[in-house]
Write a structure and sequence with these properties.
Number of domains: 2
Low-confidence stretches: none
Number of strands: 0
Structural class: mainly alpha
Distance between the termini: 44 Å
Largest sheet: none
Radius of gyration: 20 Å
Mean pLDDT: 90
């Protein structure tokens, strides 16, 4: 029942993430006006706003004018629900500490998904999202494991500093939003998890970049948003845990070296 509840909570939050991703980059309020069709202006009813189901029932179109609703709405709701369900299944909280951990991880996933959408669509990692997220990450460590705070603060500093160094050495390749996001990831996964999060980010980014170049969807010299790949790396390590990541990379290293 908990997994189902967290899944339903996730798809509902995914709907809110879509509102945030639509409005904040344009400096619009996320509270007003109420949800409406961007084409005809009709205010959406409760039947239009059921996460995932409404999109499928309406075949991705406005009930009134038939204007297309972007598929991002569906996929963000579905992805958020699926990730929330995975978190609930993995943690299965039995005490207050477990509940706090599940809630914090879910909050961090909201940040990662929001950043991914805004960076892909607008090349923006919004300060109004990332600064509160950094504050929550620090408070989360203080509440759940204060003794680990120095390692998490150091992870945040190194994550942000590494991207800042790359920005300085290769101007135009990355943005300061990427540095802030890397700092947030370091705070979340700690010093031990940061190298693996960055490894996953750069490897996945390199693979996707290579595919885009091979299919000529990107040309040499064109930049690719790094935020989504940093988010993938951070979320991956956060979900599996840094200790599991260490064991996985050790196994991979032995396999590559023939033993």
């Amino acid at each position: 029942m908990l997994i189902l509840f967290w899944l339903l909570l996730g798809v509902s939050i995914g709907s809110f993430i879509n509102v945030v991703a639509d409005r904040l980059p344009a400096s619009r309020s996320i509270a007003t006006p109420l949800s409406h069709c961007g084409a005809c202006g009709r205010r959406l009813t409760a039947l239009d706003l059921i996460p995932v189901i409404s999109y499928l029932a309406l075949r991705g179109r406005c009930r009134t004018c038939g204007a297309s609703i972007g598929p991002r709405v569906f996929w963000v709701e579905l992805l958020t629900g699926a990730l929330f369900a995975c978190v609930a299944a993995q943690i299965a909280p039995a005490d207050v500490a477990g509940w706090l951990r599940m809630i914090l991880i879910s909050l961090y996933l909201i940040v990662f998904i929001t950043v991914t959408v805004t960076d892909i669509e607008h090349q923006l990692i919004l300060d109004v999202v990332i600064y509160p997220a950094i504050a929550v990450a620090v408070m989360g460590v203080v509440i759940t494991e204060v003794s680990a705070l120095p390692a998490h603060l150091l992870g945040g500093a190194i994550g942000a500093g590494l991207i800042a160094l790359i920005i300085w050495l290769v101007p135009g390749g990355m943005g300061w939003g990427d540095a802030k996001l890397a700092g947030f990831i370091g705070l979340v996964v700690g010093l031990n998890g940061l190298p693996f999060a960055l490894f996953v980010a750069f490897v996945s980014g390199g693979i996707v970049g290579g595919v885009l170049l091979a299919t000529r969807r990107k040309q040499r010299g064109q930049t690719i948003a790094l935020g989504p790949f940093l988010a993938v790396g951070g979320a991956f390590i956060m979900l599996i845990g840094s200790e599991t990541a260490v064991r996985a990379f050790e196994a991979l290293s032995r396999m590559l070296h023939g033993g």
